[in-house]
Here is the input.
Amino acid sequence: MTQYHKEEEIIEEIAGGEFERTPVPQSKLKSWKSFLGMYAGEHAAGTEFMIGPLFLTAGVSAFDLIIGLLLGNLLAVISWRFLTAEIAVKNRLTLYFQLEKICGKNLVTGYNLANGILFCFLAGSMITISATAVGIPFDMPMPKLSDTMPNGVTWIVIVILIGAIISIIAAKGYDTVSKAANWMSPIIVLAFLACGIVALNQLGVSSFSEFWDIWGEGKEPFPGQIKYTFWHVLIWSWFANAAMHIGMSDLSVFRFAKKASSGWTTAGGMYVGHYMAWIAACLLYAVYLKSPEAQAFLSNGEAPPVAPGPLAYNAIGVFGIIAVVLAGWTTANPTIYRAGLAFQAIMPKLSTAKVTILAGTIATIAGLFPAFAMKLLDFVALYGFILAPVGAVIVFEHFFHKKFGVIKNYAEHANIKFNKSVLFAWAISFGIFYFISIQFDIFLSFVTLPTWLLCGILFLVFSKYAQKNN
Here is the structure.
């Protein structure tokens, strides 16, 4: 046994058996049922209570919402199945260790730090959402769409308590995260369904045409929001989880899968969560918009607040509060787990539990600031745009390294700590398309795919040139 492999085993033992730096062994592989529960729980979750209403604030039409989501979510499932899961079962490595082999230790450290922090911010928005439910019995003022700072002591205390509980669950490892999702997801799915049915009744809907008329041909967006068309809905729903599928973050999850076909289980999350649940949550907000309180906001030129807790409570009472809290947990748990893995790649000698608690602490601090949740559509588009192109490096190397004559896992092969080909490919593609987005006011999700493709192509071109000259 080499000294390298001895060190790997020591690190693995310290890490608590989550196989952060070794391939997952056959004895630890899981069936598709484990992933179905996790994805259904993660995606029929806290974000859905927030995203559904935000579509309504963007003035979408019925066709744009219903058909756009149908097709966009299909593209996301296909991305998971044929890219993420396919590569995950071949290598059985975390995203972070896989990138280290390609990029080198020093370069991937910067990526892992950015990845972990962005995941923490996303988890923080889930803690914010749960807090809007827990705060109801305490008559806590709810954050508005325009709020950025904490709005009181009650808010701060509730967010800290929720964050602590979520962090402890996530720190128990993948098995605990998966089990928590399996237990909670049926309750959450039932709650979304109940919310949708109650909201339809409150809106007086008795036919499909009346359901369609809730959105109709679309309206002007609310103050401070942009107008969403069919293409906005389709592309945004495809890339809402861009960091996870084309960005390859879920290599860390699907490395436990017995077969690549487990990638199809993401459909449970997409069509229960990102379809039924988004629409149900949208209906809850449609009910609220008819209230005198919401009309007062609109008459003053302000967007009515989107607070998931009160929306669900008004529809199904205490069950709504419980559902929103659990929904926040099932999203934040795996997100904090992923963030912990990112931090552990930087600090491999720290245990999984310690780095996950660190991630949970950052997420809790982020959860204190409502801006991450209130601007969730924009934040999700941005973090997908930043992280997804790095996944192209893994995808293009995996599928095309032989055709281009590029050495796979070059940093490990050449024993280098900084692969410039990766940095230049990401920086050039990111810079060009972010400039185009800002300069021509193009919706950021519209340029995510071209950025991803350009990054992958440039990586192969730069790698071939660099390896030839070394």
User: Anything to note?
Assistant: The mean pLDDT is 84. The chain has 21 helices and no strands.
